[in-house]
Amino acid sequence: MLTKSALPALFLLASGPALATVPESAGSFQDWSAWVYKEGGRPHCYIYAQAVEKAPARLDHGDVSFFVRSVRQAATKTEASLNVGYDFQPGSTVRAAIGDETFQLMVKGQNAWLPTAEEEDDLLAAMKGGSEMSIRATSRRGNPTSYTFSLDGVTAAIQQMQKQCP
After folding, report:
1. What is the pLDDT of residues 34-77, one digit of tens each?
2. How far apart are the first and last CA of the chain?
């Protein structure tokens, strides 16, 4: 299992071409942490948390993390993603629930994202107003899986990300 300090570097390795710098902590906020790195001389930021509950317990879920990264696009300023330690069932969707709100995420390999940028602001608002986020997914082998993420500290982590990468 990866340590919390190894996950930020792993995120960067999985996110694209070689980067100029290794991420540095921009702060820990209860169950969330903020990170910043430079690419092409510009700061890039993300926040992440690890699942506090994984079910069923008999399965090896690997590392299960939820990320929100800053992006520079007209439609949105963030991109949320779920990363797990196994492949999702192709063609399936991941369901994220926060209070009464639900979001469907599309899958590819070990990752899941919102299908449209327009949903990003709604997801972040729900995360800021919620206490936990429940995730339901299906593995490539057909196993139903579920995860719980604490949202304690997510608002402060988002604020730090926005401060570091306006």
Report:
1. 999 998 888 999 999 999 999 999 999 999 999 999 987 766 78
2. 33
Q: What is this structure's pTM?
A: 0.86
User: Residue with structure tokens 């990866």?
Assistant: 2
73 within domain boundaries = yes
Is 150 part of a structural domain of the chain? yes
Domain containing 115 — which CATH number? 2.60.40.1880
Question: Which structural domain range is residue 120 located in?
Answer: 24-164
* Token pair listed for 40: 């092409």
Distance of CA 23 to the CA centre of its chain: 16
Residue 11's pLDDT is 47
Query: For the segment 94-128, what is each residue's pLDDT rounded down to a tens digit?
Result: 999 999 999 999 999 999 999 998 899 999 999 99
Task: Evaluate whether residue 84 is within a structural domain.
Answer: yes
- How many structural domains comprise the chain? 1
Is residue 153 in a domain? yes
Tell me how far CA of residue 46 lies from CA of 21, 127, 141, in angstroms.
14, 15, 31
